[in-house]
């Protein structure tokens, strides 16, 4: 784990809220399972009541992506989304603060042969993950089957960034800053599996516009670029909490064929199509709190 630009001391009062959050995550990680779910769901529903801006973002995303829902159905899904993401906080705490082996009996891995066969080609693998509320726990449980590196966004708070980076470095072989393209390419060319999530809006300069739930969405080019630079197979991965709220399923899909092509919009559309398919299976578990459609084509009004 690299030190980054962290200060030598985190004793200043400005870091006290982060210390409290870290302590709460350590405590939450050891709660009994049913209590963990109840606390997480309660946190999510509290945020639903107290954070109207995020509630508006979720409602807007769902209105755009699921126009078939009437107002009552959409409101129900908004609440379910907040509840699922609240549970995700406790799942993340569990992933960061405990050894994932204690949850081995709760996970089923389907079609692992797709990843094993892709990795056996010897060119490394770019593993496409998705920003579900279960993302960090999914990474921890996936590590029980396959070692992997992860691409991530550093946290703005230096103390929490150190905590998060340290936790992910215990789960993954290496935690790679999302701006470190050379690091990603280097690890893949060294034969590693690198977990990468290309489903967020990083602005016009990094993106092309490709359909996502029927809407032209700014979609990053980097997935195809990494595949082109490394020659690595690109393997889509799904991960979700099952309806029993006690078990999880990881599912690999076959590597994308003829990827990348010479059409970057078509490549982005293929990635988006997989992400959309995964979301439709468990839409409430997706991170709809993110402004997925914030960057509009020039001249179009914003949605939020």
Please render the helix and strand layout as text:
Elements: H1 16-29, H2 33-50, H3 52-65, H4 71-97, E1 107-110, H5 112-119, E2 125-128, H6 135-142, E3 149-152, H7 158-171, E4 175-177, H8 181-189, E5 193-196, E6 207-212, E7 215-220, H9 222-230, E8 234-241, E9 248-252, H10 264-281
Parallel strand pairs: 1-9, 2-5, 2-8, 3-4, 3-5
Antiparallel strand pairs: 6-7, 8-9
Helix pairs in contact: 1-4, 2-4, 3-4, 4-6
Q: Can you characterise this structure?
A:
The chain has 304 residues and is of the alpha/beta class. 46% of the residues lie in helices and 14% in strands. The protein has ten helices and nine strands. Strands 1-9-8-2-5-3-4 form a seven-stranded mixed β-sheet, with helices on both faces. A two-stranded antiparallel ribbon has the order 6-7. α4 packs across α6. The chain is globular. The mean pLDDT is 95.
């Amino acid at each position: 784990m690299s030190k980054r630009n962290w200060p030598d001391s985190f004793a200043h009062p400005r870091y006290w809220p982060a210390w409290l959050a870290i302590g709460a995550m350590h405590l939450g990680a050891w709660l009994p399972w049913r209590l963990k779910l109840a606390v997480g769901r309660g946190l999510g529903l509290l945020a639903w009541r107290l954070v109207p801006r995020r509630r508006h973002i979720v409602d807007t995303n769902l209105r755009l992506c699921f126009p078939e829902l009437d107002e009552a159905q959409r409101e129900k899904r908004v609440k379910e989304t907040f509840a699922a993401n609240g549970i995700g906080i406790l799942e993340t705490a569990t992933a960061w603060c405990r050894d994932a082996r204690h949850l081995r009996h709760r996970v089923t891995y389907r079609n692992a042969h797709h990843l094993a066969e892709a990795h056996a080609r010897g060119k490394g693998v770019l593993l496409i993950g998705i920003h579900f509320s279960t993302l960090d726990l999914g990474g921890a449980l996936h590590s029980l089957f396959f070692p992997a590196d992860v691409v991530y966004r550093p946290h703005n708070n230096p103390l929490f960034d150190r905590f998060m980076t340290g936790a992910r470095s215990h789960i993954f072989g290496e935690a790679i800053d999302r701006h470190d393209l050379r690091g990603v390419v280097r690890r893949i060319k060294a034969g590693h599996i690198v977990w990468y999530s290309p489903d967020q809006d990083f602005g016009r300069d990094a993106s092309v516009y490709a359909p996502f739930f029927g809407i032209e969405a700014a979609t990053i080019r980097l997935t195809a670029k990494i595949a082109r630079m490394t020659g690595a197979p690109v393997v889509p991965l799904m991960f979700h909490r099952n309806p029993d709220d006690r078990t999880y399923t990881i599912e690999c899909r076959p590597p994308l064929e003829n990827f990348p092509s010479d059409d970057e919009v078509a490549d982005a559309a293929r990635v988006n199509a997989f992400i959309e398919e995964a979301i439709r299976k468990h839409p409430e578990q997706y991170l709809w709190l993110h402004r997925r459609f914030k960057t509009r084509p020039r001249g179009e009004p914003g949605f939020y």
